[in-house]
Amino acid sequence: MIRIIILLLLALTVLSGCSYSTLEEAIQKKWDDPIEVLYIDEEHQSVIFLDPSQDNPNHSVYVYSTFEKSRHAYRYSTDPEYGTSFSVQGDLIPFLFKWNGGDKKTDNVIWGAIRSNVTVKEIAVTCIPRNDDSNEIKFKIPVHNQAFIYYPELDFQNSSYSWSIKAEALDENGKVIADSGY
User: Fold this and answer.
1) Which residues lie across from 50 on neighbouring strands?
2) What span, in angstroms and rounded, lies between the C-alpha atoms of 170 and 118?
3) Residue 48 belongs to what H/E stretch?
4) Exposed, middle or buried, 129 (CB in 10 Å: 0-12/13-18/19+)?
5) 65-123: per-residue pLDDT in tens?
6) Which of 45, 106, 108, 161 allows an S-S link to 100, with CB 3.0 to 4.6 Å?
7) Measured between alpha carbons, how far is 141 from 110 in angstroms, rounded to an integer?
8) Do residues 178 and 114 touch, judged by C-beta distance below 8 A?
9) Cβ–Cβ under 8 Å, residues 111 and 149
10) Half-sphere exposure of residue 60: CA atoms within 13 angstroms, side-chain side
11) What is the phi-psi region of residue 21: left when phi exceeds 0, alpha when psi lies from -120 to 50, beta otherwise?
12) Distance CA 73, CA 116 (A)
């Protein structure tokens, strides 16, 4: 009887895939070097972390991915997306801003990170249709631990307009400290 129970538990584990008690543990299982989780969006089951194998003083490689949480167990997607923030000259700070619309990995999501000792409060985004300046859309994205994930209500990728996007990183006083340009 005990042998049957052990076999059933083993079968359930194999059939359900590997699940872990924490998200960090689920992600770390897929990476050789220790990861640093920057931001977890539990509502949308999304995460941003640093790829430690490629981090250096001149640039950081960030990873955006999704996960599943079932009861108290996590399963990490093995189909992540990468973004790089390079160091720059002058007063600007490295700023990664990525917008993905409707692809299989990320749906309609804006994500990114900022490499700076200055605390960033939010990202101010301005979206302007290339053929119609009167339909400008503005919104702000809160930043957590120098990273952000946002799911816009409007599916810009499938709209009838072609958009110019500008993103500015704002400090706690509302001062622009980084600009993604158009």
Assistant:
1) 36, 62
2) 10
3) strand 46-50
4) middle
5) 888 888 878 888 877 888 886 555 456 677 788 876 544 445 678 888 887 788 899 99
6) 106
7) 9
8) yes
9) yes
10) 20
11) alpha
12) 33
